[in-house]
Amino acid sequence: MIGAGVAIVPSTHPNELKYIIHELDVVLIMSVNPGFSGQDFLYSQLDKISLVKKMIQERNLDTQISVDGGVNLSNAAKIIQAGADILVVGSAIFKAKNIKKTINNLKNL
Which of 1, 14, 70, 76 is within CB 3.0–4.6 Å of 51 for a Cys-Cys bond? Predict the structure, then answer.
């Protein structure tokens, strides 16, 4: 499958998507400022996730929300509750003492 997506950084307001969201298969919300791994999740992005989810639901779209940056076991449930469909998890897995257990815990949220 080939799809269309867009990534937005923390400073991008969700309203920037309103004219193109109906064309998108996925919106990637960067929950850290791009540049290096291991940054802390910016909790201000939870509101953005919720706003984008509302925009998708109001338009009855199948667009998915992916979140990348600082995702870990302590915040993943909140990110999902805000409306994320896909979680991109890097450092929280690769720096875990037990990678398999961390992955299983994330899958079970």
Answer: 14
